[in-house]
Amino acid sequence: MAKELHFSKTAKRHYMSAPTLSRVVQRMEEELDASLFERDNRKVKLTPEGKLFLDYAHEVLQSWQGLQRQLHPEQNNLTGEIRIFCSVTASYNFLPKVITEFRHQHPAVDFHITTGAASDALPILERGDADVVIAATPPKLDSHLSHKPLGEVPLKIIVPKGQKHQWRSLPLVMPDFGLAQTHLNDWLKRVGHNPGIYSTVSGHEALVSMVALGCGLSIAPEIIIEQSPVRDKVDMLDTLVQPESFVVGIFCKKRQLKSPLLDAFWKNNQ
């Protein structure tokens, strides 16, 4: 239910009627004395209490699986689900490195992969909507998070094709938030440039597209530029001062490593 946020679809998947599922949820809410879902005629979404309960339910399930393995050590196969969030680019540049060997060793473990904007990764981990995320490492990492680096990704300043020499006359296509915005602002200070902002854009791929359309100067990870379908419509600046690179890594909450499943996965990525 928490995945699909749809009573009819969830009920069908579990071979029950929607009213029956609704009564089950209602009984849970009565026992907890808290609303788990907000529902109206158009949509269903988790309440803050529902997100807390979902996080708790995942921990209980993982603890139960760990107890089963302790009671039956002869059954050495890990089972369960690991929820991973990453960007589309990370899914084919870093995800295979993270899961391939573990899947070979533990074929009964399921991976639920969700993709989205790279800047959303750590907030999604904090909300409990993923067990593991792949993201750029922030300047200051919260003490309750565990982190392992996967590699360095250079950031490049990009301009429309053929406008390298006019870059100081171009307006700015600004990332809406996140490390890319921080690194772009830092680069602008170091080169002594203060352009006007043409637009604010979410997502690295969209930044490349806006520059390819001739909208101005921006920043993006080199791997995204190289793999973009509009790569031939942008140029990367080769100035002496270059933006600071991303250090991409995997992250999880330290307390989740109490789960034998996540602990095994984490140790596999030493």
UniProtKB/TrEMBL annotation:
Keywords, A to Z, come to: DNA-binding, Transcription, Transcription regulation
Segments forming a coiled coil: none
PROSITE patterns membership: HTH_LYSR
Looking at the record, the residues that make up the HTH lysR-type domain are 1-47
Pfam families, per the entry: HTH_1 (PF00126), LysR_substrate (PF03466)
- Family recorded in the similarity comment: Belongs to the LysR transcriptional regulatory family.
The record, for InterPro entries, names: LysR_HTH_N (IPR000847), LysR_subst-bd (IPR005119), WH-like_DNA-bd_sf (IPR036388), WH_DNA-bd_sf (IPR036390)
Q: Which domain of life is it from?
A: Bacteria
Organism placement in taxonomy: Bacteria, Pseudomonadati, Pseudomonadota, Gammaproteobacteria, Alteromonadales
Q: What is this protein called?
A: HTH-type transcriptional activator IlvY
* Biological source species: Psychrosphaera ytuae
Annotated Gene Ontology MF terms?
DNA-binding transcription factor activity; transcription cis-regulatory region binding
